[in-house]
Amino acid sequence: MKMDRSCNAPRFFWKVLILFLSLPTHQALSSKSTRALNNTVSAFIVFGDSTVDPGNNNNLRTVFKSDFLPYGRDFANQVPTGRFTNGRLATDYIASYIGIKDYVPAYLEPSLSFEDLKTGVSFASAGSGYDPLTPKLSNVVSLPKQLEYFKEYKKRLVSTLGKQSTTHHINKAVFIVSAGTNDFVVNYFTLPIRRQSFTIASYQQFLLQHVKDLIKGLWEEGARRIAIVGLPPMGCLPIMITLNSNNAVQQRGCMDQFSSVARDYNALLQTELASMQSSLANQGSRIYYADIYKPISDMVQKFPSYGFDEALSGCCGTGLLEAAFLCNPNSYVCPDASRYVFWDSIHPTEKAYNLIFQLLRPVVDAVIRD
After folding, report:
1. Which of 93, 124, 314, 333 fits as disulfide partner to 342, beta carbons 3.0 to 4.6 Å?
2. In the chain, where are the structural domains located?
3. How far lies 42's CA from each of 39, 54, 312, in Å?
4. CA–CA separation, 253 vs 301, rounded Å?
5. Where are the alpha helices (DSSP H) in the chain?
6. Active site residues
7. What mean pLDDT is predicted for residues 64-75?
8. For the chain, what is the mean pLDDT?
9. What is the pLDDT of residues 87-103, one digit of tens each?
10. What are phi and psi of 293, to 5 degrees?
11. How far apart are CA 203 and CA 225, in angstroms?
12. CATH for 11-368?
């Protein structure tokens, strides 16, 4: 794989900098996706971390921000919105495909119109995770707080639509949750706190309980169509290779000891979601697992077949370490991000997010069908 930029920072420096980074994608496919027909989805509502945060962190006191160039370089009008990529997120493509809107706005954006709210928002916050400790590390919005914001959101709908119409509106909405990677990359693998109390296996169960708690909270608030995104191949993230390789410049390859943790967690998650779906199916639930492990793994392992030139370093800076404030207006940026799987050392490019959306369309179709 092409590697013509060097990184001479010592490993301990990288270990410190990882605490300030958040975890998890130019135009590869058409920016206008084919719209799904014959669905009556009322809104598209998103929870999670930087993989689905369109700018909620912009006004928070945190270093987990991306409301500055080169982020958003290939977005509409080249505006850096707070999305941790060069353009649109997978959730933007999903919303467009459903026919709801072209971009999912941030709930904490102060200028949202009622129509913006009605058709759906993202409560996601870069740096967040299921483990309550994870968002505390970076002063971002926890998932329980995101759920509280959702309850506030419902009240805003009730004030205009009325209670009965709002209940129906929420029942017909599609919900997606994308989180968990920060719990491992920023938290468990980097800090000693959780490792003192949890084995990897027990930590996975700890996170899964929080996943179930969140789904239960959403269900109690009227959510009936819910997709939960699994973990990516964490060992293929450029920053994980940089932090853990014996020679981060010359010996770059996916580190399976981290990806295997993701595979095990994803298997457990699928089992838990299937159990929840089975118990709630007669009440109209649709709870689905959304696999991003295989799409990203395939893009990394077979990158030329997807039209990429580079798979294990990002477009911004050296591509080995930079993310958030380390990827900034002074950073070198590759000329064409569509040739890269990753935009920075953690987050996929817009093209990769588009491909992820295309590969997730069967799940999307199952969730939105009438």
Report:
1. 314
2. 11-368
3. 9, 20, 39
4. 10
5. 11-17, 90-98, 114-118, 133-138, 143-161, 163-171, 181-182, 193-197, 200-220, 238-244, 256-280, 293-301, 350-368
6. 50, 344, 347
7. 98
8. 91
9. 999 999 999 999 999 99
10. -60, -55
11. 27
12. 3.40.50.1110
